[in-house]
Amino acid sequence: MSSPTRLMAPPEGAAPSGMPGPEPEPGLAPRPAPPLVLANARLVLAGEVVRGSVALRDGVIADIAEGAGVPAGALDCDGATLIPGLVELHTDNLEKHLRPRPGVHWPRAAAVLAHDGEIAAAGMTTVFDSIRAGTLKTPFESHESVRYAREVADQIIRLRRQGALRIQHFLHIRAEICSHTVLEELDEFAGEALVRIVSVMDHSPGQRQFADEGKYRQYYQGRHGLSEAEMAEFTRYTKALSAERGPAHEAGIVARARTLGAALASHDDTTGDHVAQSVALGVRFAEFPTTLEAAQACKAAGVPVMMGAPNILRGGSHSGNVAAAELAAEGLLDILSSDYAPSALVMGAMKLAELTGDLPGAIATVTRAPAEAAGLGDRGEIAIGKRADLVLLRDLDGLAVVAGVWSGGAQIG
């Protein structure tokens, strides 16, 4: 490529027709960012990879040009890979900061800020903070007995409005059917615009992920240190609670998600019947289906499938569920999530690219596809008029290392 070739160009100062502009920040002034050109980069576009440059202005991508030239004042990326900012729909990372050890409850603001810094460093520019709604009132102290959703959400919103967060945070309410308080906790979020995803979860024994009650016992007994007798009582208790309140809780969760205008997600679909039930509820995507059968049913129903990036990196599920790589090979994997390990998101996408030979397609699983599933049409691609959310990756002994992050055109890492 001997000279730069403009790929697309809107009228000066205007977004192209039909392209959404950047989403307004409720109660938050836009982060000031000077114009910038990222030049001589390996651009991962939708469907192709080219050498070129990207111009950022007023928080959006203003121009894209093909070629290895470096205009005066531009940042020379020296052939490093430039991808859209990562979009994370489901991460348990915040909870690790809120409760770094059993019985230890960290200050809310400090936990949110540490979480924000960690995921920004991992290349995420949009995150849906997963917050559990629904507590269990049992004789046994457990993580599920601590009610925290509204309090933590308020802290996220406060820090967001103060401009203290590096990236864009939205709320993902993980609504637990097997609980006592899920509906009243959801009612605390009435009218909250930042709630963009509500997932319907059922972690009761004999259901979905825990269809094998032996796995339920292994998980909860190990997590909470229960004796055999305590575990038997805990299992009887949660089974009875699920039978008594499960149907009403499911209906109430779905109704409240609709009122909030949030995307509804299923969780741990295991059978074709589970998927049919999820489709009837109106889910927009499926989180972590546990079997090939469930993923195939999602595909047939047009429901995007999300799997954990750690599953890709480890070569399989840590809990014995279907391998994400198997789903990818069958064309059944649409979205990756870092789940419990923020650094896994970009690493998982690059591993997926290695497995499939399709870098643009793999990057789409952590950018465009999750953005579309969440209804955010203004990001997830390197395209004119999209948010200037970008990540620069450099190769270090075969490992893709995050070398620069821009959120809304401002460099944050």
TrEMBL record:
<feature type="region of interest" description="Disordered">
    <location>
        <begin position="1"/>
        <end position="33"/>
    </location>
</feature>
<dbReference type="Pfam" id="PF01979">
    <property type="entry name" value="Amidohydro_1"/>
</dbReference>
<feature type="domain" description="Amidohydrolase-related">
    <location>
        <begin position="252"/>
        <end position="409"/>
    </location>
</feature>
<dbReference type="InterPro" id="IPR032466">
    <property type="entry name" value="Metal_Hydrolase"/>
</dbReference>
<dbReference type="InterPro" id="IPR012696">
    <property type="entry name" value="PhnM"/>
</dbReference>
<feature type="compositionally biased region" description="Low complexity">
    <location>
        <begin position="9"/>
        <end position="18"/>
    </location>
</feature>
<protein>
    <submittedName>
        <fullName>Alpha-D-ribose 1-methylphosphonate 5-triphosphate diphosphatase</fullName>
    </submittedName>
</protein>
<feature type="compositionally biased region" description="Pro residues">
    <location>
        <begin position="19"/>
        <end position="33"/>
    </location>
</feature>
<dbReference type="InterPro" id="IPR006680">
    <property type="entry name" value="Amidohydro-rel"/>
</dbReference>
<dbReference type="InterPro" id="IPR051781">
    <property type="entry name" value="Metallo-dep_Hydrolase"/>
</dbReference>
<dbReference type="InterPro" id="IPR011059">
    <property type="entry name" value="Metal-dep_hydrolase_composite"/>
</dbReference>
